[in-house]
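Re-run requested by the PI after the first attempt was lost when the workstation crashed. Everything re-entered from the original request form. Ligand of interest: S-adenosylmethionine.
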Amino acid sequence: MLSYRHAFHAGNFADVLKHSVLTLVLDYMTRKEKGFHYIDSHSGAGMYQLADEFAQKTGEYKDGIAKLINEQELPEALQPYINLISELNPDSEKNGLDLYPGSPGIAKRFMRRQDSTHLFELHPTDIQHLTDFCHRWKKAFIKQSDGYQGVLGLLPPPSRRGVVLIDPPYELKEDYQKAVNTIIKAYKKFATGTYILWYPVVQRERINEMESTFIESDVKNLLKVEFCLSNDTDEYGMTGTGLFIVNPPWQLAKQMNQVLPYLKAKLGTHNSSFSVEQLIDE
Ligand SMILES: C[S@@+](CC[C@H](N)C(=O)[O-])C[C@H]1O[C@@H](n2cnc3c(N)ncnc32)[C@H](O)[C@@H]1O
């Protein structure tokens, strides 16, 4: 069952949160000369055309990145992400947005010759788009196979430096626990890696369960950042989004405390909320 297509959601408020954090993490990793591995368990297509039928059908990016792209007074910590989107859309002020990068598109901007990128994707169409997108990217290795298994097979990386993004579609309820359990297993193999796990807030109990599983595990240094557009509800639909980040860069919590009030002001309403919480200490 592979019905999820990220093209419907590219550039929405959840992507803004996820990709601004990913940008800050990769920016931090490239401050050291030594190479590292970037592993993306659920990569999607790599790059999205916002004029296509998918993005236009939902228009989600209009309530996400489109509201930020031409803003002048951005918090410093949001600047690297917005710069990256601006570089892809040099005429955005006049003509709006054309392109939006998925997580591999963000990574491509940062990865150097000494770094290597490992991308997993199962969908037959998106793997094709991803392969086209990575054409000529020498140190990108793409596999059409299960990303949870793929991550575990690559750890620990030879450089002992790595960032792992786990970003499932959550079409299956088991994804919530599977994603956490994959990080717990990965951490046993490579405890110094940085792990970023994205989640949607649809049913609050699922997020509470993820949190409890982490707290009962051996994982240390876990940060949780969350941005909710509206209050939790029993009705269906995503009201918010968040990330669990194991071994975040030391200044990430402070940076997100700059970024999140701004996102609430620009993308939210008076019902919106955010939090930055160190769930497990170092
Ligand atoms: C939320 S999207 C990824 C978006 C992407 N990480 C980004 O930020 O641009 C999830 C993707 O995971 C793919 N997928 C679903 N199950 C998978 C699995 N077990 N292994 C690898 N990819 C999977 C889906 O086809 C979909 O493209």
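Saved to the shared folder this time. The two ends are 39 Å apart (CA to CA).
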